[in-house]
Amino acid sequence: MNPAIRSPLLFGFVAILMIGTGLVQGWNSALLILNMGLISAIMALGVNLQWGFAGLFNIGVMGFVALGGLAAVLISTPPTTGAWAAGGLNIVIGLLLGAATVIGAILAQSRMAPGRVRNLTTLAILVVGFFVYRAVFDPGVDAIEAINPSVSGNIGGLNLPVLLSWPVGGLLAAGAAWIIGKTALGLRSDYLAIATLGIAEIIIAVLKNEDWLSRGVKNVIGLDRPVPFEIELQQDPGFVERAVGLGLDPVTASGIYTKLAYSGLFVVVLLILLWMAQMALKSPWGRMMRAIRDNETAARAMGKDVTARHLQIFILGSAICGIAGAMMTTLDGQLTPGSYQPLRFTFLVWVMVIVGGSGNNFGAVLGGILIWWLWVQVEPMGLALMQLLSSGLEDGSALQTRMIDAAAHMRLLTMGLLMLIVLRFSPRGLIPER
Amino acid sequence: MDVINALVVLANFVIVPGLAYGAQLALGALGVTLIYGILRFSNFAHGDTMAFGTAITIIGTNALIAAGITFGPLPTALIALPLGIAVTCLLLLGTDWAVYKFYRSKKAAPVILVIVSMGVMFVMNGVVRFIIGVGDINFADGERFVVTARGFREATGLAEGLAIRTTQVITVVVALFAMALLFWFLNKTRTGKSMRAFSDNEDLALLFGINPDWVVKVTWMIVAALATTAGVLYGLDKSFKAFTYFQLLLPIFAAAIVGGLGSPLGAIAGGFVIAFSEVTVTYAWRRVVAYLLPEDMAPEGLLQLMSTDYKFAVSFAILIVVLLFKPTGLFKGKSV
């Protein structure tokens, strides 16, 4: 089918799905799905930049998303009273010492003549550096975590508007991507994939364990919001009056109002990023990227600096995932490091890109929203299906219970089948690259 | 005397668990390495293949126990293991026929096969959850310990006890047996030799009349056996949980890569390297050091390099270091 007709049709289909959800399950649920769908679309845009444009196989999306979430905490929460005085200096000096150790080891590697002396010096720098770093760092951590651990126990943040954390989340992810890219981008595709998978796990491990920074598995809750709280709206007589005037229950109306406000913000971010990605795709830079992707050797022969371009696009794509992560944490109002799982935050994003159409920004956006809708809806649909199938069975029988329990696991199966079917019969996705 | 006590503590908390975990990782990594060597892609569904085989074995074990059949002091799961292997064989051959064959015949780029294996991973993960749910399942029965801490203390008169669980001994014995069998197969049998030839040089092997379909089939069957065995041993030693098996992917890949992808010997070495680094880095050394130093110099802290939750981080850090200095792993691996 002509792509000029195909894309609007598919987007129209997604719109119908959303409206249908609103009519059947209520507008609050529909908007909830839409909001996460918009965030997923942004993540898919980031992955598409790396995979679709440049053929970089990054399966560490989760790590960058989590870093964005961390940004939301570090920017918007109020600083913990006394934390900086208690251990801030130790933490900062400790981190600097840690960085100095790594830089020292790298310098020793690059400046000294190869041989046993160099290896031993590098090893000595790393070992001594590690213990010095721990000696300075640990007391700081203990001091900070001792401050009222049930409520705070972390250094807190800068108490700035939470919206500011979105670009900062992007910057944080970009910084991490620079470090990772510097070490791992020289690896071949499989190895790069496994390296990024591992780095994402490390980032999550740090967030889960460094309580002074992110409160670990104790979670940071009650983050600031860029939109009014529902309860404030319900207490506002003007709002209640308008809601009643529209024939709505004030509680429902306040929920819809805040969710719509979020949707507006997300759509703005998505449109800006989509516009930028489209411009990039059409620019000479985008053509160069695709040329590198399609034939690296030829591009290198033409004098293109492949490694530098790969680093560039790796950083850009990861930054977009970081922005999406900060947005998600803002929407949730909390950072829960324990909830980051690769199946949900890395592999599902990949399903979105593959199904939507890699190499096409609109495909990625479509895939993001569509797959998120499916991810949420497959479970109730599966349950309904199982109830229908087992309705002939005796109520409460073992088989019936088993079938209804199993419905809860429909999601992964459906996503996998969908991905395999698309890869097999339409490998370029729903909206193929032009 | 104190040196002996220190050694006993070390054996109890580092050497014995490290050997068992290393053997499990090595078996897992052998499967990954075989697929990489012969089918030429990194199989992301390997962790879930292990989970599937283990789930079938657990069902078999439960059926056996319900029928009153047990294995005396040994875990009943060992009797059910062949069933698990057989069903996993069917699953993998079916997957190959339904999914991978198409891409192989098209000579798709390896990275496409990796993405396809991600899809297979999702499906298998879903299937496992369908079959057995998401809960924590302990299916080890029989004798719990070969050597108990108290028994060891009484027999030797030492201050420290040494406990060796039955599952740890079984893990090491079964893993050694499986590895020996694999190496015998690869080096002595006709099919094994053609597999190695196919792995070294596909075109040359085809020229010499090696049947690629047969090589692929045998590979999947061996992978099914290795994955199921690794999964069952891990599950007996710790416990079975679908999500944990998916997470095992990282240390298994790390082991395979550290050893050199495509090299079976490397996979075994890599498994033990990763296992021992994880255990030593996250172990609190205080008690060992306390025995070795004079009393007034006893350490105050736990002497733990990193908290236990950084296990995965350790395996990955080693992976990166090895890749930076030896890009093809300790034993020269291959690259596609």
Automatic annotation (TrEMBL), chain A:
KW Transmembrane (keyword) present: yes
Keywords linked to the UniProt accession: Cell membrane, Membrane, Transmembrane, Transmembrane helix
Pfam families: BPD_transp_2 (PF02653)
Lineage: superkingdom: Bacteria
Subcellular location: Cell membrane
Membrane topology summary: Multi-pass membrane protein
Identification of the protein by name: High-affinity branched-chain amino acid ABC transporter permease LivM
Originating species: Yoonia vestfoldensis
Lineage: Bacteria, Pseudomonadati, Pseudomonadota, Alphaproteobacteria, Rhodobacterales
From TrEMBL, chain B:
Coiled-coil stretches noted in the UniProt entry, renumbered to this chain: none
Alphabetical keyword list: Amino-acid transport, Cell inner membrane, Cell membrane, Membrane, Transmembrane, Transmembrane helix, Transport
Membrane protein topology class: Multi-pass membrane protein
Transmembrane region(s): 6-39, 51-71, 77-99, 111-132, 162-186, 214-236, 305-325
GO CC list: plasma membrane
Origin: domain of life: Bacteria
Main subcellular localisation: membrane
One Pfam family hit: BPD_transp_2
A single GO molecular function term of this UniProt record: L-valine transmembrane transporter activity
Subcellular location(s) per record: Cell membrane
Family affiliation: Belongs to the binding-protein-dependent transport system permease family. LivHM subfamily.
UniProt protein name: High-affinity branched-chain amino acid transport system permease protein LivH
